[in-house]
């Protein structure tokens, strides 16, 4: 069941009052009065696309007075059938315009959503690459830090060995007598 606003309900009709269908506008606007025995299609049917609406109207068929057909307290009783048809045609044309605009906006929205999804995927891929590069960088820094520590230890050993050799060399020179 769809939610109908007050603008969706145009004219309440009494089904007991049959009026002859005199134009395409009447068939579209008053499907309950048409002579067809099958169900009337919805707005989305293919027969709707063949309908064209215009502001011309056919002469009203002799029928019951408007006040007996129209029992809506919100409508002024001075509106004629022609004015009502014109109002219905204008509203249906406006509805068609709004549906076209809605379709266009939905297409734009779909395009933007696809673009957004593509950007999201690209961002995710770049974030994964960044995380991988950060991981590599961290591993490289840790490996270099370990190597640096090993080199420090080796340098201390080398310096210690050189100092020891120097001391031994100086002590050896002190033990030898100088012959001059």
UniProtKB/TrEMBL annotation:
Know the name of this protein?
Uncharacterized protein
Give the start-end ranges of region Disordered: 1-66
Per UniProt, the ranges with Polar residues bias are 33-56
Top-level taxon: Eukaryota
User: What is the species of this protein?
Assistant: Pleuronectes platessa
Keywords, A to Z, come to:
Coiled coil
Q: Which residues form a coiled coil?
A: 81-136
